[in-house]
C-alpha cells in the first residue's frame, strides 16, 4: 500500500520582491519593527519610572535597542531576504528622527496653541502653598495668586475643573506629581484618587497644557495679512528675484571676461574675486554689518571723502533692503562667476573660430553663441538660487542683527513688530517663534512654516513650468 504524497513544506522566500513594491514592502517591515521596538521601550520605561522614580530617562533608548536586537533575528527567520535591508536600517532611523519627526511635529504644532505659556509643563512661576487633608483626597489652597478664582488660576476647561490636572509638590519641590481633579469648591480641590503616601504636599500649581485649536493659527495669520504676511511675502519674492538676477549678471560678465585666455594675470583675478565666496558667510555678513554702521562704518567714511552724506544703511527701511541685496551680491557673485567659467569651458572653441572667420564681432559671438549655450547650464542654477534665497535666513539675520533695531532691520509703520523691513518669510517665522508670546510661540511659527512650504512649492512649480523642466523630463 503506497503512502499518499504529502505536499512539500512551504519554503520561505530567499530573494526580495522585485520592483518598487518590493522596496516599499521591505521599508514597511523595517518601520513596523522599529515602531514595535519604540512601543516596547516606551512601555518598559514607563513601568520602570513607576517602580523606580529616580531611573534615568535614557532607559527608553536602552529598551528600544534591546527590543530591536531581539526582534531582528526573529524577523530574519520569517523573511530571510530582509537581512540585506538591515544595512538600510540606520539610515531609516536617522531619516525618521531628523526629517520625518520634525516635519510631523511642525504639522502637529501648527494646529495647537503650543508656546512658552502653553508648554505642557507645570507653571513654576505660580506655585502657591497648599495643604492636604487626612484622607489625601482634598487639597486646600489658602491664598490664590493674584486673587483669581480657583478655576481661573488652574486654567480649567469647565467651572467644576472635572478632568483637569493639577501639579503637587513637596517642600523641596523636587518631584512634581500630577493629579486629576474630580471637582472644586471654594479654595478646596477634590482629587479623583488619593495622593501618593510618599508625597508630603506643600505646594500646588497649574499645568500649562497645550491643546488643539484647529485653524485658529492660520486665521490669525491671514487676519493680519496686510500687516505682516503679504508685505513680507512680496519682499521675499523681490529679494530672491533681484539677488538671482544681479548675481547672475555680475557672475556672467566677470566669467566671460576672465575666461579670455589673452587676459594677463587672469588666475590672480579669479583668486581675488573668489575670496568673498571662500570666506564663511557667518563672518562676512557680520563684518559688513560693522562696515555699514551709519556713524563709524568705513563705507560711510569713504563716502564722506567724496562729499556724500552718511547713509542710514541699517536704520532706514529702504536702505536696509538695499544693503541686504548689495551684501548678498558680494557673497553670491563668485559662485555665478565660477559656474560661468565652468560652463564656458564646455563650449567648442571651433564655434568662435568659425564665427570670427564669418566676420562676427565679439559681442555677436557672445549673444549668438555664448548666451544660448549657457542657457541649459544656467537654468537649474538660477532656479536653485531662487529657491535658496527665498529661504536665505543667514544673510537677513546675521547682517541686520547688528542694527539698532535688531534682527530683521528697522520696523515699518503699519507692520507687526516681528516683521521688520528686511524680514523674509523664514526670519519672520523665526521672530514669531522666539520673539513673541513670551519668546516661544511655536504654534504660530509652525503655521507660518506650513504656509512657507506651500508658497515655496507653488513658486517652484511655476519656475519649473516656465523653464520647461517638465517637458525635458518627459523626453
Description:
This is Maltose/maltodextrin transport system permease protein. Its main location: membrane. InterPro entries: MalF_N, MetI-like, MetI-like_sf. Keywords: Cell membrane, Membrane, Sugar transport, Transmembrane, Transmembrane helix, Transport. One of its GO terms (molecular function) is ABC-type maltose transporter activity. A hairpin with a 5-residue loop joins strand 3 (about 130) and strand 4 (about 140). The longest helix has about 35 residues, at about 20-50. It contains 16 helices and eight strands. It folds into three domains: about 20-110, no CATH class; about 120-210, Elongation Factor Tu (Ef-tu), domain 3 (Beta Barrel); about 220-475, MetI-like (MetI-like fold), CATH 1.10.3720. It is about 55% helix and about 5% strand. With about 475 residues, the chain is of the alpha+beta class. Strands 1, 2, 3, 4, 5, 6, 7 and 8 form an eight-stranded antiparallel beta sheet that branches. The mean pLDDT is about 85.
Amino acid at each position: 500500500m503506497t503512502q499518499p504524497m504529502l505536499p512539500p513544506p512551504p519554503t520561505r522566500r530567499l530573494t526580495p520582491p522585485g520592483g518598487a513594491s518590493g522596496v516599499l514592502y521591505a521599508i514597511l517591515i523595517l518601520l513596523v519593527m522599529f515602531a514595535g521596538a519604540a512601543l516596547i521601550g516606551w512601555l518598559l520605561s514607563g513601568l520602570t519610572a513607576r517602580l523606580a522614580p529616580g531611573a534615568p530617562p535614557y532607559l527608553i533608548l536602552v529598551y528600544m535597542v534591546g527590543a530591536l536586537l531581539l526582534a531582528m533575528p526573529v524577523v530574519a527567520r520569517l523573511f530571510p531576504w530582509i537581512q540585506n535591508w538591515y544595512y538600510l536600517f540606520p539610515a531609516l532611523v536617522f531619516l525618521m528622527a531628523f526629517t520625518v519627526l520634525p516635519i510631523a511635529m511642525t504639522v502637529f504644532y501648527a494646529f495647537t496653541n503650543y508656546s512658552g505659556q502653553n508648554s505642557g509643563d507645570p507653571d513654576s512661576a505660580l506655585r502657591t502653598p497648599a495643604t492636604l487633608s487626612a484622607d489625601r483626597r482634598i487639597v486646600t489652597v489658602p491664598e490664590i495668586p493674584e486673587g483669581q478664582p480657583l478655576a481661573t488660576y488652574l486654567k480649567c476647561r469647565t467651572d467644576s475643573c472635572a478632568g483637569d490636572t493639577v501639579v503637587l509638590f513637596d517642600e523641596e519641590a523636587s518631584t512634581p506629581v500630577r493629579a486629576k481633579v474630580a471637582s472644586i469648591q471654594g479654595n478646596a480641590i477634590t482629587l479623583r484618587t488619593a495622593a501618593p503616601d510618599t508625597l508630603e504636599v506643600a505646594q500646588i500649581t497649574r499645568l500649562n497644557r497645550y491643546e488643539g485649536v484647529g485653524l485658529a493659527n492660520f486665521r490669525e495669520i491671514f487676519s493680519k495679512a496686510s500687516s505682516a504676511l503679504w508685505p513680507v511675502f512680496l519682499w521675499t519674492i523681490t529679494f530672491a528675484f533681484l539677488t538671482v538676477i544681479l548675481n547672475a549678471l555680475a557672475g556672467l560678465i566677470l566669467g566671460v571676461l576672465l575666461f579670455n585666455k589673452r587676459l594677463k594675470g587672469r588666475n590672480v583675478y579669479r583668486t581675488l574675486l573668489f575670496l568673498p565666496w571662500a570666506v564663511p558667510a557667518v563672518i562676512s555678513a557680520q563684518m559688513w554689518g560693522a562696515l555699514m554702521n551709519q556713524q563709524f562704518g568705513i563705507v560711510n567714511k569713504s563716502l564722506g571723502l567724496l562729499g556724500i552724506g552718511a547713509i542710514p544703511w541699517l536704520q532706514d527701511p529702504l536702505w536696509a533692503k538695499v544693503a541686504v541685496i548689495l551684501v548678498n551680491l558680494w557673497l553670491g557673485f563668485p559662485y555665478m562667476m565660477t559656474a560661468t567659467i565652468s560652463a564656458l569651458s564646455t563650449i567648442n572653441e571651433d564655434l568662435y573660430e568659425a564665427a570670427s572667420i564669418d566676420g562676427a564681432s565679439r559681442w555677436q559671438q557672445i549673444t549668438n553663441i555664448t548666451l544660448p549655450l549657457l542657457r541649459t547650464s544656467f537654468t537649474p542654477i538660477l532656479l536653485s538660487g531662487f529657491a535658496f534665497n527665498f529661504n536665505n535666513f543667514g544673510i537677513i539675520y546675521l547682517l541686520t542683527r547688528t542694527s539698532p533695531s535688531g534682527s530683521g532691520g528697522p520696523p515699518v509703520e503699519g507692520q507687526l513688530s516681528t516683521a521688520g523691513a528686511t524680514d523674509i518669510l523664514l526670519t519672520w517665522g523665526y521672530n514669531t517663534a522666539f520673539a513673541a508670546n513670551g519668546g516661544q510661540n511655536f504654534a504660530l511659527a509652525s503655521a507660518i512654516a506650513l504656509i512657507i512650504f506651500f508658497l515655496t512649492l507653488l513658486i517652484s512649480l511655476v519656475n519649473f513650468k516656465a523653464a520647461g523642466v517638465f517637458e525635458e523630463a518627459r523626453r
